[in-house]
Design a protein that fits this description.
about 400 residues, alpha/beta, Rossmann fold, six-stranded parallel beta sheet, globular, about 45% helix, 16 helices
Length: about 400
């Protein structure tokens, strides 16, 4: 098969979709198979693809569009419209068997198309996204889904939402789980302590990792943290590691900062900003516990990454998260700040419970691998070709 994959989600800063693309492409490149993979990306970002030769990158670098925006930053700022035009020019002369769009809304492609849907948050919880993005997705999302030959859902939860919302047949959907990168594992304590000293992180802390946006539910987390005794707060500052997220209509980051001040938390909360991928395993390993109160996730990589590092997890019981975490973490209602405060205090106070959840987390995380994701995705490509031949 000749397979075309859109890898433009690797444009920085890398978020959940970018991690999915990177993990999948790396794992596909390591499989011993006879298929030919081609990756679409603006040429300046081709180096972000792991183990990929220049011959495998489709960039339409000779197009008039690229000559109109010759600088890398201009290509990036031109956004989705430019990438779609580059794609249509670059893919027109290639005889691909399958095109894989990893970010729900496919580019125009006249043949077999596989679409990955990470979640339906923008349709189910539009209030947690900027208005401009909601309008754009509402205009293209359903049409893109209907054009797909087959659909990959990253959890049973997302698959059910697709069936309920769009009336899609279960036979058209393949559920393929993501995985944590192999870098996420228990690290040498000496290296972790050195990292914390270099970054000015406290000796012990409670950790949240994720983009600062409304559906991550940080308001409830701050309210729960404010209920803890002052001595607990001083011993275990709350570290919020993540990018500021969208700021088109309003700034969720500013709202969270203001709430922290209003609750009198001040210096007890540390905002690290965006943490580069190479540093993430260290910041996980340095944490006493990991907390993730999100109200909606199609999968939820951060809890899986934390479990892979052997860190006890307290997680929301909403959406796909119970499916991924199972009994390897404490599952709490995302709307009950008192229950969150009680769970945090209980886990911090009980070393035996911490040890138990560390072991459970490592065992649960081992069930998810990028190799399995790649093999199952390849099966989807093959099924797509067979069913439409």
């Amino acid at each position: 098969m000749k397979i075309l994959i859109n890898t433009s989600p690797l444009l920085a800063p890398i978020s959940g979709v970018g991690r999915y693309v990177r993990g999948l492409t790396r794992a596909l490149s390591e499989l011993e198979d006879v298929h030919q993979y081609t990756y679409f990306t603006p040429p300046v970002f081709a180096q972000k693809l792991p183990n990929i030769s220049e011959q495998q990158v489709l960039s339409a670098r000779r197009s008039m569009l690229l000559r109109r925006w010759p600088k890398p930053e201009q290509v990036q700022l031109a956004g989705d419209w430019v990438r779609r035009k580059l794609f249509s020019i670059g893919s027109a002369w290639k005889n691909f068997d399958v095109y894989h769009e990893p970010n729900a809304v496919p580019f125009g492609f006249p043949a077999r198309t596989v679409v990955t849907v990470l979640d339906l948050s923008i349709l189910k919880h539009p209030e947690t996204h900027p208005e401009v993005r909601v309008k754009l997705v509402n205009r293209h999302f359903e049409n893109g889904i209907q054009r797909a030959t087959r659909i990959i859902a990253i959890s049973q939860f997302t698959a059910k939402e697709l069936m309920d919302h769009f009336g899609i047949s279960q036979d058209q959907i393949d559920v393929i789980y993501l995985a944590a990168d192999e870098r996420f594992r228990p690290l040498d304590k000496t290296l972790v302590e050195r990292y914390k000293r270099e970054k000015g992180l406290p000796e012990e802390y409670i950790l949240f990792v994720g983009t600062i946006e409304p559906r991550k539910n940080l308001k409830v987390l701050l309210q729960a943290y404010a209920k803890l005794h002052l001595g607990v707060q001083r011993k275990y500052p709350l570290v919020i590691a993540g990018n500021k997220g969208w700021q088109i209509d309003r700034s969720p980051y500013d709202e969270i900062k203001n709430l922290a001040e209003d609750l009198g938390l001040g210096e007890k909360i540390i905002f690290t900003g965006y943490v580069y991928d190479k540093e993430l395993p260290y910041i996980y390993n340095g944490a006493s516990i990991f907390v993730y109160p999100s109200i909606y996730e199609g999968f939820g990589l951060p809890p899986l990454e934390a479990m892979s590092c052997g860190i006890p997890v307290i997680c929301s019981n909403a959406a796909s998260l119970p499916e991924i975490v199972e009994d390897a973490g404490l599952l709490i209602s995302p709307y009950d700040s008192t229950a969150w405060a009680d769970a945090i205090l209980q886990l911090l106070s009980d070393t035996g419970m911490q040890k138990d959840y560390r072991q459970r987390g490592l065992q649960q995380a081992a069930k998810f691998t990028w190799e399995r994701c790649a093999r199952q995705t390849l099966n989807t490509y093959q099924r797509t070709v067979e069913e439409s031949s």
